[in-house]
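Hey, why these numbers?
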Amino acid sequence: MESLRTNRRKRGMRLSIILTVAFGIACGLLTPGYAQEYKQIVIATGSPFELGLIDELAKAFQKSHGGIVRCIKTPTGPGLELGRYGLTHITMGHEREATARFAADGFAARRTDLMHNFTIVVGPESDPAKVSGLSDLKDVHKRIFQAKSPYLSRGDGGGMDILEKKIWKDLKADLQGESWYEVSNKFMLASLLDADKKGQYHMLDSSTWALHKSKTKGLKLLVKGPPNEYEMCLVSTTKHPNLKYNQALAETFYDFLVGNDGQKVIAGFGVKEYGEPIYYPTVIRNPQ
């Protein structure tokens, strides 16, 4: 019964996202003066938008190519669902298996690696599960499970949530009714702040931590895991002819992101403000 309620909740969340996007697009087209802004595309992604990278990429792109780049903040799973419904031109996420299914089902006209950060685990300074210094995420979660240490899951269908569920499944860990395990059903930053309030272990990406670690007083970085790799898909107009009108702009933006100019923006994002790279370009390692 709990599984059925969870599935219904997820379907409801996906439908809500889809209806919100459709309404937003419709409102945009009905706004006075919309004709001069009709050259626009929609991107679906999560942390890259929440942390400000998409805005920086859009500014650089618009200087050379014009048009409007809109973004829907959504975890990887729901973002791919938007692509399946033809409500976004480009998807950007970090769950390779989900993206591979999206492409195998014919929804991606083009697909590429784009950039990466790192998967990390933060937790209380006392580190009751003794995970500090580890790098194997399966071992980290095994120790947390054995110690029954407070842990906060996102549970939002995003790439990090999908990865976490896979780890627990591989460990054959039954979390049903475990009081130490909580689910936020929130996005990455909100979940991090919640974990800080309760002193819980939490898995997230290094980009969110780099920008917002100053807001967390009770947590410290304990584990730096493997690269968290972002992929990008250009949604197929064969599947969704409604996207053809602005597909040329979408293709140009796609090429911009994997070209030297876009990769350079990614490489430099946040370095001056935070003293470290927030994302690492994957297509061109050292863009000039």
Notes: Residues 1-8, 19-36 have pLDDT under 50 and may be disordered. The radius of gyration is 20 Å. The chain is about 45% helix and 20% strand. The domain at 117-228 is CATH 3.40.190.10 (D-Maltodextrin-Binding Protein; domain 2).
